[in-house]
Amino acid sequence: MLFAMSVTLEDNSYLHVHKLEAIPRDIEAYLTENGYPVKPYLVKSIDSNPDVPPVILAYPDQLGWIEQEGLLYEFTIDDMNYISLHDEGYVYVYTDDETDELVLEDGKAVLAYCDYVNMIDNDWMDDDIDWNDESWQWEK
Question: In whole angstroms, what is the distance from residue 42 CA to residue 73 CA?
């Protein structure tokens, strides 16, 4: 069972996930301190309007892989906590370019940290480009 609690670390509050390793003697006291069990879902918010329901991209049993430097690793609680602390809960999800369907590897979703994806996306930036050249800028 997973539990989540708000934690503040160096002026940053984030949702910290931890696993119940053993059944506590006083379950009521544990639930009072840690809340009820949670299940992680991958949710895509379509609109900031609270009346528009979010779309579930992946269910708890589909969270399986995190890509790092081209290799797939098992998605762990440590990954969840890193994403919550460093990426404010945002994660990149691989989807099919044509169908927008979730990319599954062995039936599990493939995720990546946002900072890793941003690093890859910025690789197209070539040092030979003259960024002072105003021809590429928007016209006023």
Answer: 17
Strand partners, 38: 2
**65, 112 Cβ separation under 8 angstroms:** no
Is pTM beyond 0.85? Reply is no
Buried residues in 15-53 as b, exposed as e (16+ CB within 10 A): bbbeeeeeeeeeeeeeeeebeeeeeeebeeeeeeeeeee
What is the distance between the alpha carbons of residues 15 and 3, in angstroms, rounded to a whole number?
10
Of 50-54, 74-78, 81-85, 117-121, least confident by mean pLDDT is: 117-121
The per-residue pLDDT for 49 is: 80
